[in-house]
Amino acid sequence: MSELRIPQELLPADGRFGSGPAKVRPEALETLARSRVLGTSHRKAPVKDLVGHIRSQLTALYGLPDDWQVVLGNGGSTAFWDLACVSLVRRRSSHGVYGEFTHKFASAVSRTPWLDKPAVREVAYGSGCLPDIDPDADVYAWAHNETSTGVAMPVCPLDGADRESLVLIDATSAAGGLAADVRNADVYYFAPQKNFSSDGGLWIALCSPAALQRADELTSAPDGRWVPDTLNLSLAAQNAAKNQTLNTPAIATLVLLAAQLDWIMDNGGLGFAAARTRESSRRLYEWVEHNELARPYVTDPALRSPVVGTVVMDERVDAPRLCRILRENGIVDVEPYRKLGTDQIRVGMFTSVDPDDVSRLTACIDWVLGEIV
Question: How far is it between the farthest Cα atoms of the chain?
Answer without folding.
Answer: 68
